[in-house]
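Treating backbone geometry as a discrete language has practical consequences that deserve illustration. Part of our work consisted of pairing the sequence of a single chain with a tokenised description of its backbone. We regard such an encoding as a compact summary of how the chain folds. The amino acid sequence and the backbone structure tokens for this protein are reproduced below.
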Amino acid sequence: MADTASPASLRATIAALSRSRTPDDPDLVAARQAHKAARLQGYIERVVADWPPLSDEQRARLAVLLRGGGAA
């Protein structure tokens, strides 16, 4: 899956793959994962666009959260 694919095109890919593949098919699983990542990326971009500048400490803490290294 391309990293720059839109959520809409990824939804179409998922729909096409799901017609002929099992739910655990690697291509279908990858398409679903890419779709979730694209939706998350869009959300983050919208939220970050409205943020004030962050301190280095704030950026570091958010990076830890995005890597799955702790609860908020």
About this structure: The chain has one domain: 7-66.
